[in-house]
Amino acid sequence: MILDLQPLNLPSDNRRPFVIAGPCSAETEEQVMTTAHELAHKGCHIFRAGVWKPRTKPGGFEGQGEKALPWLQRVKEETGMLIATEVATPRHVEAALQAGIDILWIGARTTANPFAIQELADSLKGTDIPVFVKNPVNPDLELWIGALLRLNGAGVKRIGAIHRGFSSVDQKLYRNVPLWHLPIELHRRITNLPIACDPSHIGGRRDLIAPLCQQAMDMGFEGLIIESHCNPDEAWSDAKQQVTPDVLDFILEHLVVRDNVEMTESLVSLRKQIDEMDSQLMDLLTKRMRVSREIALYKKDHNMSVVQRERYSEILAKRAAQGSLCGMDPAFIRRVYEEIHAESVRQQMEIINK
Ligand code: PEP
Ligand code: MN
Questions:
Q1: How far apart, in whole angstroms, are the C-alpha atoms of residue 255 and residue 224?
Q2: Which end of the chain is more exposed for a tag (fewer CB within 10 A), N or C?
Q3: Mean pLDDT, to the nearest integer, of 288-312?
Q4: What is the model's pTM?
Q5: How much distance in Å is there from the Cα of 66 to the middle of ligand 1?
Q6: Whose Cα sits closest to atom 6 in ligand 1?
Q7: How far is 282 from 176, CA to CA, in rounded Å?
Q8: Closest CA to ligand 1's atom 3
Q9: What is the DSSP track for 2-64?
Q10: Ligand 1 closest atom vs CA 53
């Protein structure tokens, strides 16, 4: 499928990646200006800041709202950077356009709601502003594509997608699991759509930003959107995942950007599939351990011993036979399950001895 798109034409010295950087939220005029000047000094061309913040629970910092728009205008005047912010309602769009915001993005929670997307699309009719659409919070590619189609259907032609990872119920390495095959499939389905990666919201942790940026480059993403704050520890939202402009510059300087990387079945892409499957294995193991800890509570309540020998022998025998049917060496599967069982017993002991 090809959407009726025009180039985003974002400033990036004509090199990949284009980078959008700035704080999660515009907190104060001083924080916005300090961060923006530091970023501009490091050569950034596009500044982001959330003015309206969708928060999971009431009571959190919900953004400064329209009062922060003049701060972004000041950024543009003083640094020459383009300015970008998130919009979730037609009223946000109107205020952002009036304030001369250059680039809009639609947040993950909004993309998940087709009514909200249609209202936004209608409010953007007749404008020429570039709009980025973040993936919905749930791993639903059709919903993501639906949002892109609604915008394009309303005549928005400068559209990009942002991959920001997906919610999942289990405790895990990432704040939002990347599920790289989804943006790769999006690229396969809409070949002329530029896709940027948001390592900040995928990782949720500073130390994951650099490796995630590199993965995104290896997979041929066109751009990056990264949260950067002049004083990340004191940030009013997403403090753990923001980096200083200095650190951001260091990360970007060390990125290896290869030419002509295609999101195809290349070796890199196959390796990414392996990485992806390993993280699914890790998620499954985590879930298995959680269930095993619940079993420990049951055993404790019923005064049962931790290791039930028949059950253990049964697992080893059944899994080895299953493995063999799947073309694997049954001895290998036995070893894997002996180790999994040992860790499971260790975790159950912790609970029983509490
Ligand atoms: C953000 O970019 O600060 C944000 C709220 O992102 P997301 O919609 O991806 O959660
Ligand atoms: Mn954020």
A1: 12
A2: C
A3: 89
A4: 0.77
A5: 18
A6: 107
A7: 14
A8: 24
A9: ----------STT-SPEEEEE-SB---HHHHHHHHHHHHHTT--EEE-BSS---SSTTS----
A10: 5
The closest of 287, 261, 269 to 180, measured between CA atoms, is 269
328-353 confidence digits (pLDDT tens): 889 999 999 999 999 999 999 999 88
For residues 287-296, average pLDDT: 94
Measured between alpha carbons, how far is 25 from 46 in angstroms, rounded to an integer?
15
**Atom from ligand 1 closest to the CA of residue 200:** 2
Q: Any residues with Cβ below 6 Å from ligand 1, and which?
A: 24, 50, 107-108, 134, 164, 201
Closest protein CA for atom 1 of ligand 1: 24
CB count, 10 Å around CB of 218? Answer: 19
pLDDT tens-place string over residues 107-135: 999 999 999 999 999 999 999 999 999 99
Beta strands 159-163; 195-197: pairing state:
parallel
